[in-house]
Structure formats: structure tokens, C-alpha cells
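Q: My labmate handed me this sequence with no annotations at all. I'd like to see what the chain might look like in three dimensions before we decide whether it's worth expressing. Could you predict it?
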Amino acid sequence: SDVTLDDTAGDQEVVLRVRPTVVGQHEYRAEITVDPSENIRWNNERTFFLNVTDPRVRVLYLEGAVRPEFRFLRRLLERDHQIEPVCLIKVRAGVFRRLGEASDIELNDFPRTREEIEPFQVFVLGDLDATHFAEGQLVEIAREVTERGKGLMLMQGAAAYGAGGYGASALAPLLPVTIAGRDERVATGEFRMSLTPEAVSY
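A: Here is what I predict for the chain of 202 residues:
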């Protein structure tokens, strides 16, 4: 790129535009041809790194039934052009069916391998009992969340949280609440919430 220097004292700013097409860390170097009359030549080049990420957020959403929450959240996710949701609905124990084609990821069942789980940045689990997952699947999700900083959301439902057996799962330590066991009595009616001492001092 050719730059014509002006007569104004001080710095002159030049904007260089680059549009990477490959995700990952890239090294760039800006360099100016050395003029023979220059006394200081080491500052004629600058190397910098640029971390290129995919602007798309891939969401894996699993639900136990086509309930109002599922319809609403699915429409909301598919409306955002930067979000690519894969929505799977339970057909029977261990078997899911995909609804919608908002993502180019070929997946019609819960991911069985780490390679199938890796493309997703967010995991949403709806009204779905923990027994619908094969051994190790929830462990893989927990590993993605703890080791790679991915998002996790558990939605409420009759077969969620304690009632769904998540209190004994690998996801329990990741949640900001204490999950009771399956035999915990469900409280109904009005009740008052209060902050814990830790929350008050936060």
C-alpha cells in the first residue's frame, strides 16, 4: 500500500484493512521500506498477532417434549443470524429427532464422540431426564464447559434438575444452585426467596 506523508508535525496514522478467511491465530507484519538517509531503521517494521474467531455461535438444544418453552426458544435462536442452533427433541429413551435445519452441522442424534461435541459453544438441556444420556456424555459436556469455557443452560421442567437425576451427574458442580436428589419433595404455592450470606457479601 502506498502512503504519502504530509507536512503536519507529529504522528501520521494509516489504516490497513485485512479480512482473514481462516479461523485461528495469525501472525502479520507491517513493513516500511528503509530510506537510506534514516538513522534508526529497526522501527520500520512491526509484527503483531490476530486471533480470528468464528462469529457464529453454535448451540445444541435438547428437549424432552415439544412444549411451549421449546417452541419459543427455538424460534428465538433461529431468528438470530449469528446463532446456529441444532434442536433435538426426544422421541424415546436415547433417541432424538432433529427439528429445523438452521445449522450446516450434520447431526441427528445426541453427539456420541468428542469430535461431534466440539463444534458447539453452548449446550441447552430442557425437560429431559439424565438417564436419556449414555454413560460419559454428560461428562464430555462438563469437560467442554470447564476446560474450554463453553456455555451451559439447564431449563426447568418435570424431569429436570433434581427430579431428572442431575444432582448426581457431572453437571451438578457447574451450576450456581444445589441440586437435590430425585426423592426431594417439590414445594408448591407461594414462598419467599432469601440470599445466602455468600451472596449478600458478593
